[in-house]
Amino acid sequence: MSYYDGRPESNLVWAILVTIFCCLPFGIVAIVYAAQVDAMLNSGDYEGACESSEKARNWCIASMVCGIIWAIFYGAIR
User: Fold this and answer.
1) How many domains are contained in the chain?
2) How far is CA 20 from CA 34, 53, 64, in A?
3) CA nearest to 34, candidates 23, 22, 21, 19
4) Residues 9-64: pLDDT tens digits?
5) pLDDT at site 15
6) How far apart are CA 16 and CA 33, in angstroms?
7) Residue 41: domain span
8) Residue 22: CB partners within 8 Å, gap ≥ 6?
9) Max Cα distance, the chain (Å)
10) Radius of gyration of the chain (CA)
11) Contact of 52 with 40, CB cutoff 8 Å
C-alpha cells in the first residue's frame, strides 16, 4: 500500500484504466473500493480507508491478470 502524507492511495486512476482496458467486471469492483477511500477518510475511518485502498489495489491487479490471460487466450485461438 502506498502512502502520501499519511493518506492511503485511492487507486482510482488505476481502477478506471483497468476497467477500460482489461476486465470490466473486476474493474468496476476496483472503482467501488477506490471511491470508498476518500469517503472513509473524510468520516475519520482511517483503518477502513486503508482496507478499501488495499482491496482496490488487489482488484486492479486481478483485472490486469484477467486481461492478460484473456489476451493470450484470444491470441492463441486466433
Assistant:
1) 1
2) 15, 20, 11
3) 19
4) 999 999 999 999 999 999 999 999 999 999 999 999 999 999 999 999 999 999 99
5) 97
6) 12
7) 3-77
8) 63, 64, 66, 67, 68
9) 51
10) 14
11) yes
Q: What is the pLDDT of residue 7?
A: 86
| pLDDT score recorded for residue 6 | 79
Q: What pLDDT score was predicted for residue 56?
A: 98
User: In angstroms, rounded to a whole number, what is the distance separating the alpha carbons of residues 73 and 78?
Assistant: 9
Residue 72: phi and psi, rounded to 5, are: -65, -45
User: Going along 1-78, which residue ranges are E strands?
Assistant: 3-4, 7-8
Query: If DSSP codes are grouped into helix, strand and coil, which group holds residue 3?
Result: strand
Predicted local distance difference test score (pLDDT) of residue 78 = 84
Distance (Å, whole) CA 7 – CA 20: 26
Kindly tell me if the per-residue pLDDT of 1 is higher than 90.
no
Whether the Cβ atoms of residue 49 and residue 57 lie closer than 8 Å to each other: no
